[in-house]
Each structure stands twice: as C-alpha cells, then as structure tokens.
Amino acid sequence: MEIELRREKLHFKIPARTSRGEYTEHEMLIVKLSGNGCSGIGECAPLPDLSCDRDAYKDLNEVHSLLKDAFAFNGSRQAHSDSALHETIYEKLRNYPALLFAVESALAEMNQSPELYDTDFARGMEGIPINGLVWMADHGTMLRQMEKKIAAGYRCIKLKIGAIKWEEEMSLIRSIRSRFSENELQLRVDANGAFSVEEAADKLDELSQYRIHSIEQPVRQGQWEEMARLCRTSKVPVALDEELIGINTAEEKERMLDAVKPQYIVVKPTLHGGMTGSREWIEMARKRGIKSWITSALESNIGLKNVALLAASVYSGKWELPQGLGTGLLFTSNFETGVHIRDGHIWIS
User: Fold this and answer.
1) What residue spans define the domains of the chain?
2) What CATH number matches the domain at 2-111, 3.40.50.2000, 3.30.200.20, 3.30.390.10, 2.30.140.10?
3) Which residues lie below 8 Å from residue 62, measured CB to CB, with a gap of 6+?
4) CA 320 to CA 285: how far, in whole Å?
5) N or C, which end of the chain is more exposed by having fewer CB within 10 Å?
6) Catalytic residue among 158, 203, 253, 268, which?
C-alpha cells in the first residue's frame, strides 16, 4: 500500500460563526492510498477546537508512521482479506476518528466498495433530503439566509443559536413560524452547548412554543446527569452531538446512551469514529429507540461526498429525517467530486 499525504486549506465565503467562535478558513489533510493499479482519496479534517484528535496531525511523518503501522499485518491476518484489514485499521485508528474516516473513504474508493457505491444515491438516481444551515449573525442577516434557503427548496432549516442576543433569536424564530407552519417547514436549532445548566430548561420551554423539531447539544458536553434531565423533561426533543466526541469504545457508547437517553443523536464521521464508529453509534441508538441523522463537519467536497455515501448506505434510501449535508457550499473554492445541491437535496453525478 502506497500512502501519500498533502495539506490543503479552504476559505469560507463568510465567517462561519458558532457559540464557540468563528471560522474563516479550514485546514485538512488529504490521504491518498494506492495499490494494485487502483487508488482512492479521503479527507482528514478535524475541527481545531472540538475534535478529540485535533492535535494529532501536525507532523506528517508521524501521520505516515501511524498509517504504516495500521496497514502492517502478520501473515495470518492477511489471509482474511478485506474484513481483517478493516477490523485492524479500526482498532489501530479508533482514537483518530478524522484520520480513520479518511482511510475508510480512500479504501472504499479504491475497491469501489459495494456497501457505499452500490446505492441509488451513488448511481445518481436519488437525492438525499438535507437541512438548510443558517449560521449565526445579526437578526437581519440570519433572516435573509433563512429566506434564501426556503426559496431554494429546503423544507428543513437548522439554525445556529447562542451567540447573539436571545431576544433576537426568538424574534427570528417567531417571524418564521408566523409564515410557515410545522407541516410546511421543519425547524431545528443547534446551541453547540451554549446554555448554562441554570437557564437551559427555561430556554427550551420558550422554544417549545414554536414547534421546534429538536435542539442539538443545549448544554456543554460531559454533564450527563443534567443532559439526562433535559432529555426527560424538555418539550423540545434533544439531539446529542458534541456529547459523542471522544467516546470511542462500544462499552463507553452504551454507557452514555443508557445514562442520557436522548431522543436523537447527530453523527459526524470526522468527529465520531469514522464510518465504522458512526455505524456503531447508529445501530446502538436504533436498538434503544433513539433516532439519528448523519451530518458533515465542515469538510470539503471530498469528505462531503463520502459522508453522503455513508448516509445512503446506512439508511438505505429510507429518509425518515433530513440529513445535514450542505456544508460544501460554504467555501470560496472546493474540489470537484460530482456532489451538488438541488431543491433541498444533495446529489452526486
């Protein structure tokens, strides 16, 4: 197996603002794997203030050594072909979810994995319904973003909240709900852990007036008891996002899901265990009656394509919930991978 690594940087059209801060550019590592006349690429793009492996890729020599080690098998394991390869890579890279996602993406492309590439989406026959993402800004800017998304055919809008005045955010939600019922437009909000424990319940109660589909990560991660209480009592269903970061073993995942009992989990392969770890999260949630959707995490079109391929594989075209796959439109330039957005759906050509 030949391994090539190179750094790339994308620039945002406008700063991407969350309650944790602001992004103006996004750095990534492109991983290319080659062998037997075939090749594939994947994207390793941890978020600097969020990913559990955010500081792991500064030295390319160390990354190369890590990958070489992951691909180094003894003869008995080699005899078991792709399944043994995948299992060993997952065990070796479990604590490096962004790199694991890149490697899994590259291997799938090399081998044209039926699991990812034999779907109606991969064949260009089906689009995946997605939410339109409205970033934090002043009231007027957010309202204009919202109106553009609705005009572009989105029927599910996700609002980032928690960085401007609460009264302004509520005014925006109120004005949208006065024009569009919940049957016409699904509204999701994402607090990115912005609420304090003391204020969270009151804010969720106020939000519930406007028939919000769900709120992602209302309080900071790691507060399982408080999060469990909100999941139990809130009129707005709670979706866990950051809460999943750094929980990389099956035992830890089960313990967290059983302790918190959320209504939803939002799964991001770059943050939550690559493709294998994401499938594990979704299956464990499903067994507990917890619903899920898959979301990109500011990847370029390389990562976005592979997140979308994974979503099509996991949900098999049964789109109970819109996915979160619109981030490729955020950058001034991007890679050409055939992914595009049309009428509130992501497609591949």
Assistant:
1) 2-111, 128-348
2) 3.30.390.10
3) none
4) 15
5) C
6) 268
In a 13 Å sphere around the CA of 321, the CA atoms on its Cβ side amount to 22
The helix, strand and coil proportions of the chain, stated in percent and rounded to the nearest 5, come to: 40, 25, 35
Written as one letter, the residue type at 30 is I
Distance CA 181, CA 231 (A): 24
What class does CATH assign to 128-348?
Answer: alpha beta
The answer to whether the CB of 323 falls within 8 A of the CB of 129 is yes
Q: Could you tell me where the DSSP H helices lie in the chain?
A: 60-71, 75-78, 81-93, 97-111, 114-117, 139-151, 166-179, 197-207, 224-233, 250-260, 274-287, 301-315
**Lookup result for tokens 């949630």:** 285
The amino acid present at 260, given as its one-letter code, is V
160 flagged as catalytic: yes
Q: What tens digit of pLDDT does each residue of 144-199 get? A: 888 888 888 899 999 988 878 899 899 989 988 998 899 999 999 999 999 999 99
Q: Which residue among 92, 160, 203, 253 is the active-site one?
A: 160
pTM of the complete model: 0.93
- Domain pair 2-111 / 128-348, same fold: no
Q: In what order do the strands lie in the sheet with 238-240?
A: 132-134, 156-160, 186-190, 214-216, 238-240, 264-267, 291-294
Q: What pLDDT was estimated at residue 76?
A: 38
* Burial class of residue 347 (count of CB atoms within 10 Å of its CB; 0-12, 13-18, 19+): middle
Place of tokens 């080690």: 69
Q: Locate tokens 């994974």: which residue?
A: 310
H or E stretch covering 6: strand 2-18
Q: Which is nearest to 101 in space by CA: 266, 323, 277, 248?
A: 277
Greatest CA separation for the chain: 66
Structure tokens at 230: 């909100």
Please, which residues have CB within 8 angstroms of residue 79's CB and are 6 or more apart in sequence?
A: none
Pick from 261, 209, 271: nearest CA to 235: 209
- Side chain identity at residue 156, one-letter code: C
Contact 296, 309 (CB under 8 A): no
In the residue annotation, 235 being an active-site residue is answered as no
